[in-house]
Amino acid sequence: MKRILVSALLMTGMIGIAGAQVKKEELKTGNAQSPEAETSVTIGGKQVWIFYHAPSVRGRKMFGGAGALQPDDTVWRLGADYATVLHTDADLDINGLAVLKGDYTLYIDLDKGKWKLIVNKELMNGARHQWGINRDGSTTNDPAKEVGRAAMTMGKPASLVETQKITLSAAGAKGKLLVEFENVTASVPFTVK
C-alpha cells in the first residue's frame, strides 16, 4: 500500500511538472550582448511561441567552414544563454515531425550546411532551466531526449543579419518558422493538427 501511495504521489508530481508551462520571466538573463527575444503566432485559436536570446555577429564568422564559431557538423543551441524554448498549445506537424502540445527546447544540427531543426523534450537541468551550452563548448542537446529532427530549407538573406532573428508566421492552419543570422536563412513549415 505504501508503494502504491508513493507511486501515485510521484506520478501526480510528474504530471504537474509536464503540464506546467515555462515561465518566460525565469528565462531572462539581462545579457545586453544577447538580449531576450520572442516570436509568437496564433493559429486556429492556439498559440505557438519561441523565446530565445539573440546573439550578434560582432565581426565574427558564425557558420560554415574553417574558423567558424559554430562549425559544420555540430549542434548549435539556436541562440545564446538558456536553450531556446518552443511552447505550443496545439499538436504540430513540423515538416513531418509530430510534436505534441507542450514545451520543448530547440537546437539546430548544422549538417554540412543542410540544417535540421532539433526538437528536444528536456527543459530543466535539475532545478534550473536548461542552459544551451556545456562548459566544454558542446550543446546541452541530449539525442536520447529528442522528439526528432526536421529538415529546413536553406537560403541567404539580402544582406548580413547582425543579430539573430527567429520569426513565426501563419497563413490559415499552416505556419513557418524562419531563422535568420549572419549570411544564412533557414526555414521549416509546420501545421496545427
Structure report:
The structure is a single chain. The chain is mostly beta strands and 193 residues long. It is built from one helix and 15 strands. The protein has one domain. The model is unreliable at 1-19 (pLDDT under 50).
In short:
The protein has one helix and 15 strands. It has one domain (24-192). It is mainly beta and 193 residues long.
Topology of helices and strands:
Elements: H1 2-19, E1 36-43, E2 46-53, E3 75-76, E4 84-88, E5 92-94, E6 97-99, E7 102-109, E8 116-120, E9 124-125, E10 128-129, E11 146-151, E12 153-155, E13 161-171, E14 174-182, E15 184-192
Shape: globular
Unreliable runs, pLDDT <50, ≥5 residues? 1-19
Helix content: under 10%
- Report the sheet-strand fraction: 35-45%
The structural class is: mainly beta
Our Rg estimate from Cα atoms comes to 17 Å
Q: State the end-to-end distance.
A: 41 Å
Q: Count of helices? A: 1
